[in-house]
Design a protein that fits this description.
By secondary structure, the chain is mostly beta strands. The chain has one domain (3-148): Hotdog Thioesterase (Thiol Ester Dehydrase, Chain A), CATH 3.10.129.10. 12% of the residues lie in helices and 45% in strands. A 6-stranded antiparallel β-sheet has the order 1-2-6-7-8-5, with helices on one face. The longest helix has 18 residues, at 52-69. It is globular. The relative contact order is 0.21. InterPro entries: ApeP-like_dehydratase, HotDog_dom_sf. This is Flexirubin biosynthesis protein. Pfam families: ApeP-like (PF22817).
Length: 150
Amino acid sequence: MNFHHLDIKKFLPHRPPFLMVDHVLTIDDEHVSTSFTIKPECIFNEDGVFNEAGMIENAAQTCSSIVGKSYFDEGDLEGNSTKLIGFISAIKKINIHGLAKVGKTITTKAYIKSRLNTDQFTMCAIECYITEDHKELLSCEINLVIQEVK
């Protein structure tokens, strides 16, 4: 399946200017990779550089897409089968090695370390890495809580 044409706005609650993911490159039950091109109008630009808060938000949105995937019906490419909310419950560790400049495209990869599903929500720990041209900019471990909105 070509995920590049998947409209991420149908699956994440974020909207411009707060949407920090352009494309889902790959996704399965344990892993996701996304891309994001940093535009001049991005709210997390500081002097032509995508700042630390933007990097963390990109990581969180990427991570939430892997967990959120399990709430949608198989084959739902329109995001019609459910609505979700989610939040970062903890940032367990974070290392920022560099920042990307406006005009550059970053790639973000996330892997589920652990997951707890209940009737009300999903809690998970996810490792995440952001790179630009194969150079690591950020590594982190984030805990997320995702809940379906009835």
